[in-house]
């Protein structure tokens, strides 16, 4: 799917999410509410208040459906809550918006390992190698996790 179609799909999903959350579609992306919601989501993450973090990050996405950071953080929160499939979904969306998003690549790789998807984790590691190389914390963390996974009998 081309980037334009994916962007339209994400925007459509954001409008639907906005309707669910009671946010008028016309307000999406028109003011600073997305940034405020994102900041509130980040504070909730720092406090490990996962439910509030989900709510605020979803609001941020309604106001700015192209915010890869908000999707990555939402994936992180779902990972913390044990919602592996939702986490993978949000990491994938972040990567569709920003294909070289370092945190999304690293966390998607880690979540992929948890889901038993070693090949996906290796692909993310290769992408991280091209982006930031060895010595990059995100790359090295994922490399260690893959090595550990292999040592535990993973293929």
Q: Features of this protein?
A:
155 residues; mainly alpha; Serine Threonine Protein Phosphatase 5, Tetratricopeptide repeat; 75% helix; globular
Structure notes:
The structure is a single chain. The protein is built from 8 helices and no strands. The chain is globular and about 45 Å long. 38% of the residues are buried. The protein folds into 2 domains: 1-87, Serine Threonine Protein Phosphatase 5, Tetratricopeptide repeat (Alpha Horseshoe), CATH 1.25.40; 100-155, no CATH class. The model is unreliable at 23-30 (pLDDT under 50). The longest helix is centred in the first third of the chain and has 19 residues, at 3-21. The chain has 155 residues and is mainly alpha-helical.
Layout of strands and helices, then pairs:
Blueprint: H1 3-21, H2 33-46, H3 50-63, H4 68-80, H5 84-97, H6 102-114, H7 118-131, H8 137-151
Short structural description:
The chain is mainly alpha-helical. Helix content is 75%, strand content 0%.
Terminal residue distance: 30 Å
**Class by alpha and beta content:** mainly alpha
Q: Uncertain segments of ≥5 residues (pLDDT<50)? A: 23-30
Mean pLDDT across residues:
85
Please count the helical segments.
Answer: 8
Shape: globular
Topology order in helix (H) and strand (E) letters: HHHHHHHH
Write the CATH architecture name of the largest domain.
Alpha Horseshoe
Query: Strand portion, in percent?
Result: under 5%
Number of E strands: 0
């Amino acid at each position: 799917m081309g980037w334009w179609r994916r962007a339209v799909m994400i925007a459509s999903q954001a409008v639907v999410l906005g309707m669910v959350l009671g946010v008028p579609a016309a307000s999406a992306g028109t003011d600073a509410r997305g940034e405020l919601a994102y900041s509130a989501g980040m504070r909730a993450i720092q406090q490990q208040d996962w439910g509030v973090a989900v709510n605020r990050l979803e609001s941020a996405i309604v106001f700015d459906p192209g915010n890869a950071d908000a999707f990555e953080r939402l994936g992180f929160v779902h990972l913390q809550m044990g919602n592996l499939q939702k986490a993978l979904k949000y990491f994938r969306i972040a990567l569709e918006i920003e294909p070289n998003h370092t945190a999304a690549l690293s966390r998607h790789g880690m979540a992929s390992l948890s889901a038993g998807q070693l090949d996906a984790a290796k692909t993310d590691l290769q992408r991280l190698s091209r982006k930031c190389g060895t010595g990059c914390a995100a790359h090295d963390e994922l490399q260690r996790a893959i090595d550990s996974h292999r040592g535990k009998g993973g293929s």
